[in-house]
Specification:
The complex is a heterodimer.
Chain A (H helix, E strand, L loop, with lengths): L2 H4 L3 E3 L3 H18 L3 E10 H9 L1 H9 L12 H7 L3 E6 L9 E9 L4 E10 L2 E7 L2 E5 L5 E7 L4 H11 L4 E8 L5 E8 L5 H9 L3 E7 L3
Parallel strand pairs in A: 2-3
Antiparallel strand pairs in A: 2-4, 4-5, 5-6, 6-7, 8-10, 8-11, 9-10
Chain B lengths: L6 H10 L4 H13 L3 H22 L13 H11 L8 H18 L3 E3 L9 H13 L3 H21 L4 H4 L1 H19 L4 H15 L15 H20 L8 H14 L16 H15 L1
Helix pairs in contact in B: 1-2, 1-10, 2-7, 3-5, 3-7, 4-5, 5-6, 5-11, 6-9, 6-11, 7-9, 9-10, 9-11, 10-11, 10-12
The chains are: A alpha+beta, B mainly alpha.
Protein name (chain B): L-serine dehydratase
InterPro entries (chain B): Fe-S_L-Ser, Ser_deHydtase-like_asu, Ser_deHydtase_asu
Catalytic activity (chain B): L-serine = pyruvate + NH4(+)
């Protein structure tokens, strides 16, 4: 923690968890989709479902999906802007179960190029957020670091190849986590890095053996 | 686990180095952040500008998202203009009340604010800083330094207790904001590092046990008016500290007591809207009305 965690952030009110955190969750979902949002259905769970209007959580999520920052004065008008940009956003309440954080949200998104992605995350206080699930894969990352997310076959060497590409580009791995559904099946890997991952490295990683897809997640 | 910060340790260091607490904090924090002192001060001044704008937004008499608050900052502004001779607390504190309400209302209506330390408690620091700086004719640099003092105090409270209503009740939000503002006020008035610590201790003692019981779970009732109360508590404590009054319980121990009280507090009284004012008959009525609106 440093002094700017106490004096700051500058944000649009009224709540760091229900407004600023919601913007960041929208930012992350948008970054994970990796292209402009064409359509999004947003499911609100727990306290988000109960109090979203009074906190502007819905406006904040829509602002986040358009890539706006938590202190953007346009946030109260994010629906109008989405309409103008022909982005269809709708809201529903969902029950993600008792084990989910009370401020949880799930995005079902379709991008302008037709890509689809489902992202679940939670606002865990003070504007900090965590993404907990991408396309049915349980994951865990905060968006505080640049990251790549791979879907790959669970094979020996699949992970080493990715990290070796990063190391040749001078990218240091800050944290990484690997998830798989079953041995030898489809697996996911989140690699959070200290340096941003450039286009060249990103493309090479996408072409590595065993890698099915790769997404780059970079927040400003 | 990281070692807990100690406000007394920083105060002692500042006293030994014969520095004001503001000068000590700016050097210490700049070193910690590997940032030039001037740059740190400029960043704080940017925060102050945002705070000034929040006051302006609040005084336009806006209504909040939930519709429970709004227009009260403006009411105090009008009262100050038309009935100055009838002020109970005098011009400086009345201005602090006005600013606290205005920023709280700006926050509740999706205005741009500085979370200091949180969005819900964002009215307290601007209220104390701007009302006192006007009375003192303080410069932007002096205000920036006072804000760094406030931040340093907040860091210690975060490290030993909490700044979140969900974790520690309103004492952790408005209480901490008030303690930070009290320390900043002492700095602004040229008090010693020791007096900064006394002001923090006295403020927290006077706000110990305050619960977080937001009606309908929104940052509106009682949050906005509590910011005005917190600003007043900060000024009361700063006045005592500057007069040389000492807290019998040392500052770090008071912060630890706040942490213990927060832990002992029922979850119904920590931002869940399941206790206190939130479940008063009127609180429930308002919540039902708001939720009905959401479903329609």
């Amino acid at each position: 923690m440093n002094i700017f965690d106490v004096i700051g952030p500058v944000m649009i009110g009224p709540s760091s968890s229900h407004t600023a955190g919601a913007v960041r969750l929208g930012n992350l979902a948008f970054a994970i989709l990796g292209e402009g949002v064409k359509e999004a259905v947003i499911g609100l769970h727990g306290s988000f479902a109960q109090t979203y209007r009074g906190h502007g959580t819905d406006l904040a999520l829509a602002a986040g999906l358009q890539g706006w920052a938590t202190d953007d004065s346009r946030i109260p008008k994010s629906f109008d802007s989405a309409k103008e940009a022909e982005i269809e956003i709708s809201f529903t309440t969902i029950n993600l179960g008792d084990l989910s954080h009370p401020n949880s949200v799930r995005f079902w998104m379709t991008g302008v190029n037709g890509n689809k992605c489902t992202v679940t995350g939670a606002s865990i206080g003070g504007g900090r957020v965590v993404v907990t699930n991408i396309d049915d894969f349980p994951v865990e990352f905060s968006g505080d670091f640049p990251a790549i997310l791979t879907m790959h076959r669970d094979r020996p060497g699949a992970i080493a190849l990715v990290t070796s590409i990063l190391s040749t580009q001078g990218v240091n791995v800050a944290q990484m986590k690997v998830f798989r559904k079953q041995k030898g099946g489809l697996a996911a890997m989140i690699v959070e890095t200290d340096q941003p991952i450039d286009d060249a490295a990103f493309e090479v990683i996408g072409k590595l053996p065993h890698i099915q897809s790769v997404r780059r997640i970079q927040l400003v | 686990m990281e070692e807990k910060l100690s406000l007394q340790e920083w105060i002692d260091l500042a006293e030994t180095e014969n520095k004001s607490f503001g000068d000590f904090c700016i050097e210490f924090q700049a070193k910690e952040l590997e940032m030039d002192k001037r740059v740190l001060l400029e960043r704080m001044e940017e925060m102050l500008h945002v705070m000034e704008q929040s006051v302006v937004i609040g005084l336009t008499g806006i209504t909040s998202m939930g519709g429970l608050v709004g227009g009260n900052g403006k009411k105090v502004e009008t009262y100050r203009a038309e009935s100055a001779d009838k002020s109970v607390v005098g011009s400086v504190m009345s201005k602090a009340i006005m600013i606290a309400l205005a920023v709280g209302e700006a926050n509740a209506s999706m205005g741009r604010i500085v979370a200091a330390p949180t969005a819900g408690a964002s009215g307290t620091l601007p209220a104390v800083l701007f009302s006192l700086s006007e009375a003192r004719g303080s410069s932007m640099d002096e205000l920036g330094k006072a804000l760094i003092v406030a931040g340093a105090i907040g860091m210690v409270i975060a490290s030993r207790a909490s700044l979140s209503g969900a974790a520690g009740g309103c004492q952790a939000e408005c209480g901490s904001a008030a303690a930070m503002a009290a320390g900043a006020a002492v700095e602004l008035y040229g008090g010693s590092p020791e007096q900064v610590g006394q002001a923090v201790a006295i403020t927290l003692k006077n706000m110990l046990g305050l619960v977080c019981d937001p009606v309908a779970g929104l940052v509106e009732v009682p949050c906005v008016k509590r910011n005005a109360g917190a600003a007043a508590q900060a000024m009361v404590a700063a006045e005592m500290a500057l007069a040389g009054i000492c807290s019998v319980i040392p500052v770090d121990e008071v912060i630890d007591a706040m942490a213990a009280v927060g832990n002992a507090m029922s979850c119904t009284l920590k931002e869940t809207a399941q206790g206190g004012l939130a479940v008063s008959p009127t609180g429930i009525l308002l919540a039902n009305k708001l939720f009905a609106k959401v479903e329609s």
